[in-house]
Design brief:
globular, SDR_fam, Rossmann fold, oxidoreductase activity, acting on the CH-OH group of donors, NAD or NADP as acceptor, seven-stranded parallel beta sheet, Sc_DH/Rdtase_CS, 46% helix, 3-oxoacyl-ACP reductase FabG
């Protein structure tokens, strides 16, 4: 298949962790993957690692005015967008009463508003050809209460609600929308949260029946499944990839 016949995907936060693992799975399956993030160095390292099908496009998605030109640039370069993975997200661990208005709003801006704006602009392109796939990345924080992550929890709960609303409205028009809720995955972001808090780490593992942390590639495999026709009859679902954490005791 010629490169210009490949499916075209966008992965936000594609320079590291789960985003990079998703990009890696896509590229391995001949999907041209545009990786978006703020850190140019990480994006170019991703390109070095994954090869020509990985296309770095630096952008700060918190600058909402930058999103429309970004989408236009991608469509001009590749002709279309087939897959969007909304993976970029930030977290903050802080006591509930200590979280400031600004901190709360900052997390909602990155994790919810930027996802909405990017999705809206990409959907306009997908509607023109009557097909597309959107995958939102949620968190187990939306499945049950985790202390000290109030803004993150609010943002990821919003993402799951948006997934269902988007799927209901867009699926009749050929666009499937699903969500992945990762459990405890071994990334730099989770290491920061767990390694400084052994009690939290033990609790996380203790209630995960599989008994070990997931790898970013586990989320990559789930994203690849949801991005392809293997999941053509699945929309509006939240797929937990959590080693059984949500049902563990």
């Amino acid at each position: 298949m010629a490169a210009n016949e490949n499916k075209i995907a966008i992965v936000t936060g594609g320079g590291s962790g789960i985003g990079l693992a998703i990009a890696e799975k896509f590229v391995a399956n001949n999907i041209t993957t545009v990786v978006i993030g703020r850190d140019e160095q990480k994006l170019h390292a991703a390109r070095e690692k994954l090869g020509d099908l990985c296309v770095p496009m630096p952008c700060d998605l918190n600058d909402l005015t930058a999103i429309l030109p970004l989408v236009k640039k991608i469509v001009e370069q590749f002709g279309r967008i087939d897959i969007l993975v909304n993976n970029a997200g930030i977290n903050q661990k802080k006591d509930f009463t200590e979280v400031t208005n600004e901190e709360f709003q900052r997390i909602l801006l990155t994790n919810v508003t930027a996802v909405f704006v990017l999705s809206r602009e990409v959907v306009k392109c997908m509607l023109e050809k009557g097909s597309g796939v959107i995958i939102n990345i949620s968190s187990m924080a939306s499945q049950y209460g985790i202390p000290k992550v109030i803004a993150y929890t609010a943002s990821k709960s919003a993402i799951e609600g948006m997934t269902k609303a988007m799927a209901t409205e867009l699926s009749p028009k050929g666009i499937r929308v699903n969500c992945i809720a990762p459990g405890f995955i071994a990334t730099a972001m989770s290491a920061k949260a767990l390694n400084t808090d052994p009690e939290r780490r033990d609790k996380a593992l203790g209630r995960t029946p599989i008994g070990f942390l997931g790898e970013p590639s586990d989320i990559g495999d789930a994203a690849l499944f949801l991005a392809t026709d293997a999941s053509r009859y699945i929309t509006g679902t939240v797929l937990r990839v959590d080693g059984g954490n949500a049902i563990g005791f």
